[in-house]
Amino acid sequence: MSIEAKPAQASVNHAEKKLAAIFGERMVTATAIREQHGHGESWHPHAMPDAVFYAETEEEVCRALSICSETCTPVVAFGAGTSVEGQVQAVHGGLSIDLSRMNRILAVRPEDMDCTVEAGVTRPQLNDHIRDTGLFFPVDPAAEATLGGMAATRASGTNAVRYGTMKDMVLSLRVVLSDGRVVKTGQRARKSAAGYDLTRLFIGSEGTLGIITTLNLKLAGRPERMSAAVCSFSSLRPAVESVVEILQAGVVLSRIELADAVQMRAINLYSKTDFREEPTLFFEFSGNEASVTHDIEVVRSLVGSHGGTEFRCAHGDEERQKLWQARAMAVYASKLLRPGAKGLSTDVCVPISNLTTCIDETEEDVKQSGMIAPLIGHVGDGNFHLYILFDPNEVEEVKRVEWINARLAARAIALEGTCTGEHGVGLGKRKFLEAEHGADTLSLMRAIKMAIDPLNIMNPGKMLP
Q1: Rounded Cα gap, residues 292 and 269, in angstroms
Q2: pLDDT (tens digit per residue) in 355-398
Q3: CATH classification of the domain holding 203
Q4: Is the Cβ–Cβ distance between 37 and 423 less than 8 Å?
Q5: Separation in Å, CA 247 to CA 108, 145, 251, 379, 408
Q6: For position 339, which CATH number holds?
Q7: C-alpha torsion sign, points 351, 357, 363, 366
Q8: Domain range spanning residue 109?
Q9: How many other C-beta atoms are found inside a 10 Å radius of the C-beta of residue 439?
Q10: pTM value?
Q11: How many domains does the chain have?
Q12: CA–CA separation, 454 and 451 (whole Å)
């Protein structure tokens, strides 16, 4: 089946009947359930599957995929539905396999600082479960996403500057392929030189190569002390320049977040906070008492030299969590700036030395467009986001939004960065891949896809243009 071909409806119906005979009421065709599984949190049009299957075990996923392979029925994996680039839209119909009931924490090994979980386990669920061990799972995309979905989209988030992204925290996976076979991509060893790195191949594949069912994950130790701080600036440039200098000075922070003045206004509206509505940096310090105290003073001095004002620390857990909760709600807060509007959430990532240029030029594009587009970012690793508010019924507004998005992606690629730092490709970023990777690299990606999924039933129409 070609990437754009659609399966015969008779084949889809045949698969549905066979699956319903096996799984009964967990095969659902109700419109409301199909609608729920036809979109994530993206601006892309909804696209419903023909049916939804609530899987409870890996064996059931295997049986479902085997039947779908026999009938050439498209399959889309569904976790919590938090994706923002259209990864879960069933653009060719078919079957949505919901993994949220595969939510068992199978093993926690404090002595090895790792664990084994099913794909439907969420990050908050895992962290609640291991709270008493002194460990935690640090990858935080600011959403209650499933860990399987986070691996499939190569998620990261606010802690990436210190702990890395999902590719750094996954030891190995169990994945069900399109014909129902199960592959194990590795062991629990912290490093291996045995063969191709299949774990990294499936991380970020967005369900186009197989369905992740089980993950072996690294865990991190909870720091002795954690503190947070905020600091305001008169404009974005000195804020970004101070981040570059802080990183070059070797200060190790858990998080460094940037919000522009528009985003800070939204945060105040939503969270009833009283931050200055100016470009603002959020910091989190962690370590022992002496190192945290030292790092706070170094950062205080450096931001001061760039014109930073009102450097405020939050030392207690409640105060610190309130600060980060306000940051975590940034996207929802942005919607208050234009009630009823749609939001296009987009992100790029560039080398730190090019971050100032990328943000400066992006800010000019937003001003020129006349759109409301709060900027927020994990600037400690060169990644930032725009949330562009628009009316999808206004053709000129849609054109301006697409112009901003295309310019942003092209700019990031020209600055030796990427068109998506953490949102993934899905439907929204497909058209930028050739500019970033080149035709030969895309040809290799297609060859890998067709070798692993020769019938192209795994999330067809996504990622590869």
Answers
A1: 31
A2: 999 999 999 999 999 999 999 999 889 999 999 999 999 999 99
A3: 3.30.465.10
A4: no
A5: 34, 29, 6, 10, 24
A6: 3.30.70.2740
A7: negative
A8: 105-221
A9: 8
A10: 0.93
A11: 3
A12: 6
